[in-house]
Amino acid sequence: MTFVLAPGLYIVATPIGNLGDLSPRAAEILLNADVVAVEDSRVTAGLFRHLGAKRPMTPYHDHNAEAVRPGLVARMATQAVALVSDAGTPLISDPGYKLVRDARAAGHAVTTIPGPCAGIAALTLAGLPTDRFLFMGFLPSKQQARGEAIAEVAGVRATLVFYESGPRLSAALAALAEGLGDREAAVAREITKKFEECVTGSLSELSARYAEGGPKGEIVIVVAPPGEAPPASAEDADAALAEALTRLPASKAAGEVAKRLGLDRKALYARAMEMKGG
């Protein structure tokens, strides 16, 4: 169907593997946009062949974004500009947020056409908690920087999601096992494709499985949150109360320690009064 799109920026999610996942709305936007900003025209040309059509494309990626962005923003005043990545949802571990920011600053309409995202798809396959998750993108390639990045999130009480490539998978899993401990995890690859696979196990098990080298293509690693901390001991509670009582009255000290250690406030208050009386 041919129609005239209103000027502005259209952020279009495209399939991560199975071309049947392209939504009808996404297809309409791509077929009617005045220009499509792409990471790699060869990749997006394959999508247009699937649609049986051709549209003007212009490269927009990490290496040319600063030079190309002003021209794209200017075109949005009178034209419909669609933004796609090679696969999945643009801006998710791909260039684009500055284009959205500058489009908004120029007063242009920004519309999203949601769809596939490898990180979200992997979460649905992994069988790990999804009520809280943190997307980390790609880990640094250098060992020290990778270790530092992992250490930053070691205490985060959320499922962690990483993108990775096959050649780096083994090193990434080993570093995660070392930095996070032997948590439950999953390695998902070829999502939506014929040979889709999601392998689950502990980080040490997965590290051993892929020690000889990872599969080809882009991969998603999903890692479970840290386990529950052991309950505070009576000695821990007494030490915390003793310190709090140097600054606060018994009721407030009990409340502070109860919140910090997850203990019963009334019991802590009674113990605080014993300590003050003693």
TrEMBL record:
EC main group: transferase
Cross-referenced Pfam families: RsmI_C (PF23016), TP_methylase (PF00590)
Subcellular location field: Cytoplasm
Catalytic activity: cytidine(1402) in 16S rRNA + S-adenosyl-L-methionine = 2'-O-methylcytidine(1402) in 16S rRNA + S-adenosyl-L-homocysteine + H(+)
Gene3D superfamilies, alphabetized: Cobalt-precorrin-4 Transmethylase, Domain 1, Methyltransferase, Cobalt-precorrin-4 Transmethylase, Domain 2
GO molecular function terms attached to this record: methyltransferase activity
The entry's keywords: Cytoplasm, Methyltransferase, rRNA processing, S-adenosyl-L-methionine, Transferase
Domain RsmI HTH: 232-276
Gene Ontology biological-process entries: methylation
CDD domains registered for this protein in UniProt: RsmI
UniProt domain Tetrapyrrole methylase: residue ranges: 9-206
PROSITE patterns: RSMI
Assigned EC number: 2.1.1.198
Family as reported in the entry's similarity comment: Belongs to the methyltransferase superfamily. RsmI family.
Function: Catalyzes the 2'-O-methylation of the ribose of cytidine 1402 (C1402) in 16S rRNA.
Record-linked PANTHER family: RIBOSOMAL RNA SMALL SUBUNIT METHYLTRANSFERASE I (PTHR46111)
Protein name: Ribosomal RNA small subunit methyltransferase I
Species of origin: Sphingomonas plantiphila
Name of the encoding gene: rsmI
